[in-house]
Target: FMN dependent NADH:quinone oxidoreductase
Amino acid sequence: MNILQINSSARSTGSESTRIADAIVAKLTATNAGATVTRRDLATDPHPVLDEATLQALFTPADQRTAAQASRVALDDALIAQVQAADVIVIGAPMYNFGITVQLKAWFDAIARAGVTFKYTATGPVGLLENKKVYVALARGGMHRNGPTDTQEPHLKVFLKFLGLTDVQFVYAEGMGLGPDAVAKAQADADEQINAILV
Model:
């Protein structure tokens, strides 16, 4: 089993989404002998955002790219290769201002490439990252699950399905900004969820 862990908190330490993601990975490695883990912390090793220069590089034929363009595309290629090689993807996804972090958005922009991770067909787009399990660790300061302020989970479901990632399990830690008792409860709830889905 090849496990890819993506930590997308802006915090390199003290992140609840990272704690949950670590716990999921620990449980997976404990029950799958020989599992390998590749970790990418987008706080300490951020990926560049999608800008005009990057778009120009991506839409320039490979044999016509400048050295700078080729170097930029290679950064995205490396992330795509990690995703393609993974059997399991674990994403730590805190909620910032009702959505995903800019760090995670930059990673998503890098791995979504037509003809590589999805393709357009006469009947619509088809995801090419199939037969992979995804776990998403959601940490929120307030209480948003199943409510109108939870734009994060629907966005993640749509994007992951777009790439062919349909086997997705969410783990929630909510109320992290509501005081010590709420934090303790949120962490205990998250741990219970992990134990329930990873027997």
Remarks:
- Residues 15 and 198 are 22 Å apart (CA to CA).
- The chain has a mean pLDDT of 95.
- The helical segments are 16-31, 52-58, 67-85, 102-111, 152-162, 180-197.
